[in-house]
Amino acid sequence: MDNRSANYIVNIAVQVQAQPAPPPDMVVSGTFMLFELISLISVQTRATVATLCNILDNLPGLMLKHKSNTRLFHTEIESICTALRARRHTPPELRSKLFEGYAACDNAQFREHIKRKQESHEDGTIAQLDDAQLMSLALETYKILHDDKKVWMEKSGDQLDILAMKAEINRLRQNPPTKKQAKEKVPVEKKNGDAKWAWKLVTPKSGEPHEKAFEGKDYIYCPHHQTTKWVLKINRKGKVHAENCEARNDAGASAAGSGREQAQASVLEAPDASGEVDGSETSEGI
Question: Residue 177 in contact with residue 195, Cβ under 8 Å?
Answer without folding.
Answer: no
